[in-house]
Amino acid sequence: MNDTKLIDIASALGISVTTVSKALKGYTDISKSTRARVLEMAETMNYIPNSVAVNLRTNETKTIGVIIPATVHHFFSSVLNGILEEAEKRGYLVIILQSNEKYELEKKQLALLIQKRVDGVLMSLSNETDDFTHINEAIRKNTPVVLFDKIAKRVDCSKVVINDAKAAFDAVSYLINKGYKKIAHFRGSYVPQNSIDRFLGYKRALEAHGIEYDSKLVYVCDNNTDFEDGYENAQKIMTENPDIDAIFAITDLVAIGIIKYFNEAGIKTPEQVAVFGFSNWFMSTVISPKLTTIDQPGFEMGHQAVSLLIDEIVDIKEHRPVTHQIIELPTRIIERESTVK
Amino acid sequence: MNDTKLIDIASALGISVTTVSKALKGYTDISKSTRARVLEMAETMNYIPNSVAVNLRTNETKTIGVIIPATVHHFFSSVLNGILEEAEKRGYLVIILQSNEKYELEKKQLALLIQKRVDGVLMSLSNETDDFTHINEAIRKNTPVVLFDKIAKRVDCSKVVINDAKAAFDAVSYLINKGYKKIAHFRGSYVPQNSIDRFLGYKRALEAHGIEYDSKLVYVCDNNTDFEDGYENAQKIMTENPDIDAIFAITDLVAIGIIKYFNEAGIKTPEQVAVFGFSNWFMSTVISPKLTTIDQPGFEMGHQAVSLLIDEIVDIKEHRPVTHQIIELPTRIIERESTVK
DNA sequence: TTTAAAATCGAAAACGTTTTCGAAAACTCC
DNA sequence: GGAGTTTTCGAAAACGTTTTCGATTTTAAA
After folding, report:
1. Does residue A11 fall inside a structural domain?
2. CB contact under 8 A, A51 and B116
3. CATH number for the domain including B311?
4. What percent of chain A has pLDDT over 90?
5. How far apart are CA B51 and CA B159, in angstroms?
6. Do B71 and B103 fall within a single domain?
7. Nearest CA distance, A167 vs chain B (angstrom)
8. How confident is the model over A197-222, as pLDDT tens digits?
9. In the predicted model, what is the mean pLDDT of chain B?
């Protein structure tokens, strides 16, 4: 306790706090000799500046807030690692909040972060949010926001995303080119943009290859926390549409649920029905057969998001005009066993 | 921008900032009527207190820091979720830092958190740290620290742990009771307490059941990020000690590496050699055969750690004597396919 | 009507910095 | 030795709150 403050150094040296402060910060109007004395005294007295006081005076906290919609697992885990690494590199701390896919909570948490005076916030939208005034309000108040992964096209800010529609299109085209003909889709819920986009990619790929889209082949998996959804819908589809030969799943998690059911039910993957996942999560290489999937660069996404955000923070601080960027990270198909006969 | 401040409300109402502040905080020496006027004006002017100023004045930040040694994956992911949930419930924000198993980084990050004036810090030690002066220093300066999972017995603070030695003892005893006789152990590196304790539990269980301990049957897996270690050591042990009939692995991750190798090499699990994991991570039920493991309550650990920490924070604030607790969370065996013939 | 008690308010100090601006001291140059 | 420069320093304001303590006003009691 009893941290040493500027005034302690000042009185120990018989000089003013002003001089001490300037000496420590390298102002040029302090003589070499007193600067040296201050530095030494600060060292021996183990001086550590009080960040809160500095924050108040300088009006910046060197802290960014992050709101993620889901529990820290799977994909967000990678993003978070990217965020933490880049933030550390740039000298910022990060406060994490999770909205549990609830709009009201997301709104409250954003307000909390602003109240805490974070310098900026990174967020991925909850499945529920279709009103963006809280975000626009934050931006209007000069707290920069950058959206990642689950974004809103209508919000004017920087974003880092993948092209979900294209990735899905590629995935389904791959399946078609491999000779699969009756391809089902296990989609996510109806609100999130990436769920919509992946569905559209699926649909367009079918149409582009002259396969008629059949709405009976799309099943909804809106539980993001375990693979039960994929498991149960796999069971369902095999009684309702036993003649499918491939499933394109919205996430690796549901894909794994599917494969688990198939394994238990004695349905051969990929011989009888192929399975294609999405995200390239860690366990997609653990399961057997190993899952073909789309590599979604979560770590890189976290990196870029932080980078954009901090760039914008300093632009604002230096009164430069801010320009919003939309970074689209490349995805690629990771071919493994679940689609290769 | 241009947040409204106390003085704005005050001058709008023709009263002093003191009165406004008191009215907002419910002081009893403000009349009902002016209090009502202040509240209403604060509402219409959309007043939000400046947390930084409050922090400076009250000398608390309502923020806790968390230092985890490894990337946010697997076990720490669960702990983090528990931390976030409990912290939110108690009105604290959480700043996350990861030390990447480096002592120097851990030390630096702890100093950073203290400089930032967090009210307390939660940490799980890096594999490298065998010097605890940085932690003792933090505690001495009145920043409470609670250790979880990877702790140091010699640091005097609250801790929340599992009994690694007992859990390992139980696991190995279970294997012995199942009739396995030549049981290997894939241990972690030499410094971390839980690695040591699990090894000791293994050794004691053997001895308690009259099986001679053979140091040639313990292999070191010190890479915590993927399952290559388990995979490679599995390969190695089957040439060096092909007659083993069970392996007790320090984590599910290495257990999965083992199973992957066995699956590829055509070694039957558990018929030829059984595999026992540790932690009950998500994918232990994904792999085939499903993994028998020890359930390590990560979420609960996060919960309890935050709870202990915040209790201590308020004890210190109210000048009550602080008492350090050590909470030992129960573990249990989850029997699945990898050990049941 | 006077006095004591209670209710209501505000001035000012404090939290620990940073930064502006002016003053004093030390040089330079003739 | 005096005018002009350059170095070096510090007083004070500011960031936005909270809280102490005294002052004033109102109410109650006598």
Report:
1. yes
2. yes
3. 3.40.50.2300
4. 87
5. 30
6. yes
7. 25
8. 999 999 999 999 999 999 999 999 98
9. 94
Strand C bases near protein CB (under 7 Å) are: 7-12, 14-22
The closest alpha carbon to A64, from B73, B270, B132, B95, belongs to: B95
Q: Do A94 and B93 touch (CB under 8 A)?
A: no
What is the per-residue pLDDT for A1?
A: 56
User: Which residue is nearest to the C1' sugar atom of D26, using CA?
Assistant: B31
**Closest CA of chain B from A187, distance in Å:** 21
Whether B39 and B91 share a structural domain = no
Query: Cβ of A57 < 7 Å from strand D?
Result: yes
Of A48, A72, A95, the CB nearest to B72: A72
Question: What value does the mean pLDDT take over residues B62-69?
Answer: 97
What does the pLDDT look like over B283-300, one tens digit per residue? 888 888 999 999 999 999
Distance CA B202, CA B5 (A): 62
> H-helix or E-strand containing B235?
helix B228-240
Q: Are A169 and A292 in a shared domain?
A: yes
As a whole number, mean pLDDT of residues B107-120 equals 97
pLDDT-derived band at A174, boundaries 50, 70, 90:
very high
The Å distance, CA of B25 to C1' of C8, is 16
Whether residue A173 is found in the same domain as residue A278? yes
Q: What is the CATH classification number for the domain harbouring A22?
A: 1.10.260.40
Q: Tell me the sheet residues that pair with B183.
A: B246
SS3 B76: helix
Angstrom distance, A5 CA to D23 C1': 35
Provide the pLDDT confidence category of residue A244 given band limits of 50, 70 and 90: very high
Closest CA of chain B from A209, distance in Å? 34
Nucleotides of strand D under 7 angstroms from a protein beta carbon: 7-12, 14-22
Residue range A309-317: mean pLDDT, rounded = 94
Residue from A5, A93, A262, A317 to probe the interface with B (highest B Cβ count within 10 Å): A93
Give the distance, in angstroms, between residue B76 CA and nucleotide D3 C1': 73
Per-residue pLDDT tens over the stretch B137-176: 999 999 999 999 999 989 999 999 999 999 999 999 999 9
pLDDT in tens, B244-255: 999 999 999 999
pTM of the model: 0.93
State both tokens at B195: 């690695």
Which residues on chain B are in Cβ contact (under 8 Å) with A142?
Answer: 1
DSSP string over A236-266: HHHHH-TT--EEEESSHHHHHHHHHHHHHHT
Task: Say what percent of chain A tops pLDDT 70.
Answer: 100
Query: Tokens at residue B53, please?
Result: 């100023």
Joined together, the tokens standing for residue A16 give: 């003013």
Mean pLDDT of B254-260: 94
Encoded amino acid at B271, one letter: E
**Residues A179, A287 share a domain:** yes
Full domain range(s) for residue B17: 6-49
Both A292 and A302 in one domain: the answer is: no
> Do B100 and B24 lie in a common domain?
no
Q: How many CB pairs under 8 A join A and B?
A: 112
Residue B111 lies in a domain: yes
On whether both A171 and A292 belong to a single domain, the answer is: yes
A14: left (phi over 0), alpha (psi -120 to 50) or beta: left
Q: How far is the CA of B31 from the C1' of D27 (A)?
A: 14
Among residues A194, A171, A201, A203, the alpha carbon closest in space to that of A336 is found at A171
Split into its structural domains, chain A has a count of 3
**Nearest-nucleotide field for A3 (CA, C1'):** C16
Domain-embedded: residue A309: yes
Taking the CA of residue B298 and the C1' sugar atom of nucleotide D18, their distance in angstroms comes to 40
In a domain, A1, yes or no: no
Residues of chain B with C-beta less than 8 angstroms from the C-beta of A48: 111, 114-115
Question: Smallest Cα–C1' distance to nucleotide D18: which residue has it?
Answer: B57
CA dist A33 to A9, A10, A24, A45, B220, Å?
A: 15, 15, 13, 18, 55
